[in-house]
Design a protein that fits this description.
Elements: E1 2-8, H1 14-30, E2 35-37, H2 53-75, E3 78-85, E4 94-100, E5 106-111, E6 136-139, E7 142-148, H3 155-163, E8 168-173, H4 181-196, E9 199-204, E10 215-217, E11 223-226, E12 232-238, H5 241-250, H6 253-256
Helix pairs in contact: 1-2
Domain CN hydrolase: 1-241
Protein name: Carbon-nitrogen hydrolase
Keywords: Hydrolase
């Protein structure tokens, strides 16, 4: 299955971002990709949003999902993208990833579990966390586990997705730059691939504040395609189930695992 990982620099305005996504979706479809993975905050960048984020999320989320559905149907591919969904019980929006298939049908929604309360930032001040339920969705011959940015720092979260059947991790991020952050990013993405012997599709926002560096990593941790800080770019690569089976036969860590299993 050919997949595409898109990278761009979302503004604070939904219409501008939909136009950018449209361009990436067209290029993905022209490359015969069946899946397009886009960043966290594809809907809008929270720090740039015009107005109150709570109000903008409530009004904008249905418009965002409808627009993604229209693009997915028009170009005949599954699209995974992040935005801010309505209001939770704590009067804060969720940071949500939506997956829409080529018929324009929403096939999954995942609300971010681990909020970015680190490096002197507090996402929990304006976002409500989800309940932590792993979300895995079938796309073509693969099962895609949905991961949102800071979630990638928690290995047990990715393992829960793999235990739920995922053989690909789709990671949508707005990875903030800073000392060692770029090193952490690549190390974490490759580590999740290696320890779970799975494909990883990592899409990042590229902006003044975020590192970009989107990449596709195979189940042995080999980077098969990557970007730098380009602000409107795409990686396309064919995922292989044969490669997945080969690595899992060579390094059967999932089968050999003891911790958490009866012995």
């Amino acid at each position: 299955m050919k997949v595409a990982v898109g990278q761009f620099s979302p503004s604070g305005r939904l219409p501008e971002n939909i136009r950018a996504i449209e361009g990436l979706a067209k290029r993905a479809a022209d490359s015969a990709a069946e899946l397009l993975v886009l960043p966290e905050e594809s809907m809008f960048t929270s720090d740039l949003v015009v107005g109150n984020i709570r109000e903008e999320a409530t009004a904008g989320w249905p418009q965002f999902v409808d627009a993604i559905a229209e693009l997915a149907q028009r170009f005949g591919l599954t699209v995974i993208a992040g935005g801010y969904e309505g209001m939770g019980a704590a009067n804060r929006p969720y940071n949500t990833i939506v997956a829409v298939d080529g018929s324009g049908t929403v096939i999954a929604e995942y609300r971010k579990t681990h909020l970015y309360d680190a490096f002197a930032y507090r996402e929990s001040d304006y976002v409500q966390p989800g309940d932590g339920t792993p979300v895995v969705v079938a796309v073509g011959d693969f099962n895609i586990g949905l991961v949102n940015c800071y979630d990638i720092r928690f290995p047990e979260f990715s393992r829960a997705l793999v235990d739920a059947g995922a053989d690909v991790l789709s990671v949508s991020t707005a990875w903030v730059s800073g000392p060692l952050k770029e090193d952490h990013w690549e190390t974490l993405i490759r580590a999740r691939a290696i320890e779970n012997t799975c494909w990883v599709l990592a899409s990042g926002v590229a902006s003044e504040d975020c590192v970009g560096r989107s990449m596709i990593v195979d189940p042995m941790g080999v980077v098969k395609g990557s970007l730098g800080d380009e602000r409107d770019e795409l990686i396309v690569f064919p995922l292989s189930r044969d490669r997945l089976a080969e690595v899992r036969a060579t390094v059967p860590v999932l089968a050999n695992r003891v911790l958490g299993k009866a012995v």
